[in-house]
Amino acid sequence: xxxxxxxxxxxxxxxxxxxxxxxxxxxxxxxxxxxxxxxxxxxxxxxxxxxxxxxxxxxxxxxxxxxxxxxxxxxxxxxxxxxxxxxxxxxxxxxxxxxxxxxxxxxxxxxxxxxxxxxxxxxxxxxxxxxxxxxxxxxxxxxxxxxxxxxxxxxxxxxxxxxxxxxxxxxxxxxxxxxxxxxxxxxxxxxxxxxxxxxxxxxxxxxxxxxxxxxxxxxxxxxxxxxxxxxxxxxxxxxxxxxxxxxxxxxxxxxxxxxxxxxxxxxxxxxxxxxxxxxxxxxxxxxxxxxxxxxxxxxxxxxxxxxxxxxxxxxxxxxxxxxxxxxxxxxxxxxxxxxxxxxxxxxxxxxxxxxxxxxxxxxxxxxxxxxxxxxxxxxxxxxxxxxxxxxxxxxxxxxxxxxxxxxxxxxxxxxxxxxxxxxxxxxxxxxxxxxxxxxxxxxxxxxxxxxxxxxxxxxxxxxxxxxxxx
Length: 470
Fold this sequence. Notes:
Layout: H1 26-39, E1 50-58, E2 63-71, H2 80-90, E3 96-104, E4 107-109, E5 133-136, E6 149-153, H3 157-166, E7 175-179, E8 186-187, H4 193-209, H5 211-227, H6 236-256, E9 277-278, H7 282-285, E10 291-294, E11 298-301, E12 305-308, E13 329-332, E14 335-338, E15 352-354, H8 361-367, E16 385-387, H9 400-419, H10 430-444, H11 448-451
Parallel strand pairs: 1-15, 4-16, 5-14, 6-7, 6-14, 7-10, 8-9
Antiparallel strand pairs: 1-2, 2-3, 11-12, 12-13
Helix pairs in contact: 4-5
């Protein structure tokens, strides 16, 4: 399920009045994209279950050479780490059925930043002994959860959506223990859930009868989301708005969650500093006696159980007012679901792109400080390469599809000239790329993501922010 309204989580040129709700389930979103492909008759332009191994610029031919692997059915849905493990254990034939080399004038990378899930935390021993099911929320596996004890790692957007549902139909888990390092700021529903659904359904019903209303609805949702950008600045007005928002969100914690979680769920950093969690019913789900939230760290995995503690990661163990436990505990575990995010800082992983001088794109970026690209779209030394959802194109307040459409339109201005024969290659100047990146990184230092007192997936260890746009 998306945590941005589907009215905005859809293409501007393909509005859909038939959403079942403002926040439809994943299969409905997937069907929407499939329907768009059918409408524009581009379904035959896709090759599925294919992995790109390498892209290399050929100076003499002024073309890109692309090496691809045709994969064993369904293996393409697995992570790169999983495919590598299968390769090491069973050989190449277990994942690859054939190879092919293609030459092309233009490459458009649409790899994105959330394709590769985070790996299992390597400092936690014993995972090789675990006898139950283990999977990442982004690589969902269907298992019988009825009367099972489930452990969930993480409290980001995905975890907040799935945890309240696991004890309900059709899953019926016996217990769900959610492990949290530190709390996110949670944006609650603006009106009660039932009234919110009724309002959303009414607006969509009007949109189905009056098509122009859907356009107006999209503009209204976009404007509302854009207003949230006020939270990210460092001026006096932004600080005042954050404090006002934080007061409202603390009240929501006290109103919506059991008292034992109040200290545990109250962040000690500024709102907007890292990705907020939007609704999803998480707070209300914490009232379910079958759901337990803890900040005791996972310290060991056994065959059918996990060990948490001693101590806790939040709030400070020295704070005696907190009801959060400190003693070591062993919890039964039939299943572990990791919802610990993605390897967003491993940009374009595992793709290898070699440009004009034979250097890997990622190595060139990192030599300059970290992932970067002019307008998030182009890199000098890599002609006719256009990136979608490139470095510094994400945001913390609205739909990424807005950035995607802008980047596609920007890229097409140059691609059309290449395809028409008016240009052989397009390449940004090195001086322009460096100047653009310096402006972006300087502006980011004055934003809440840097000044808000939190740690987040936006940053690399060296302090470089390759993720958000300022």
